[in-house]
Amino acid sequence: MGVVDIAREAGVSTATVSRVLNGAESVTGATREHVLEVVARLGYTPNAFAASLRKGRNDAIGIAVASISQPWHVKLIRELRRAIREQGFTTIVYDLEHSESVLIEHTESARRLRLAGMVLATGDRIDGDEVRAALDRMAGTVPLVVIGQELPGAGWTTVAFDDVAASEQAILELLGRRPKPVLFLGEAASSYLSEERRIGVERALSQFPDLLAGSELVALDAGMDFSVGYREVQARAGALARFGTIFCVNDELALGACRALSELGVRVPEDMMVIGYGDVDMLPYLTPSLSSLSGDVGGVAERVVRALLARIEGGHVDVGPKLQRKIVHRESTGG
């Protein structure tokens, strides 16, 4: 079904059908109503991609996340889609699968589709030569807002949390509750955000040399999910007594760590405090409920969409200072 079929059924030219579908005012009311009646009767749906080619821009905004299996990204996507729809745009969600090649592929797709804009949310590093070049190419034609990491000279806007400060303050607060060495799970060379969070942890521990010497900052090269948190804690079963807190760079690691502690007979929080990062929706309903560093996801979405609209319209973009996080204390840190 196409414009030609509509024109044939309505007894008008294809140009008239196109003018009706595009909302042109040069078509008389009777003709417009007749064409729209035929369109409805035949169930015709305009091809959005073809329309975007004619207009020079799609009405869709892409949302690319590191992995749609991560609960925090699910929460973020939900808020972004809400904020984007309120501005009259549709959305396309891209799963990057923690892969540089997939990210590059999706940047090319965004350019081909002439998306109205793109939001990129990933903790994985984007400063490699090939990825940076792909993002620069896309940002040249598709307005881009990145959540989480800043690069010097980037041709896009960044909305970021101050994770260095958040991690430092969280560790200082937890050491005030239990002044013992920390087991940090999450440092990884491939992750920009885990590096930011590690820096904050080290800054806090550096104020207590004895505690820093007894702490362990674990490098994770095989992902940062539930199974990894479980495995890393199980592997240190004989050394856990020296730690007072397990600090994880995401909630999945923390959940895996809690499971391992339970199996090892280590009580949370009596023997060990555990804290995650992201504050996903399920955490209050666990036993014990899990503490986490939280950010206002709705506020992030509003700031991102405001910045993206400014870039789309070619105006001045001011995202303001870095966003702040806070500890949400639940049972795993003593309430």
UniProtKB/TrEMBL annotation:
Describe the location of the HTH lacI-type domain by residue ranges.
Answer: 1-55
Q: Which PANTHER family match?
A: HTH-TYPE TRANSCRIPTIONAL REGULATOR GALS, LACI-RELATED TRANSCRIPTIONAL REPRESSOR
User: What Pfam families does the annotation carry?
Assistant: LacI (PF00356), Peripla_BP_3 (PF13377)
A molecular function annotated in GO for this UniProt entry is: DNA-binding transcription factor activity
**Keyword terms, alphabetized:** DNA-binding, Transcription, Transcription regulation
What's the protein called, per UniProt? HTH lacI-type domain-containing protein
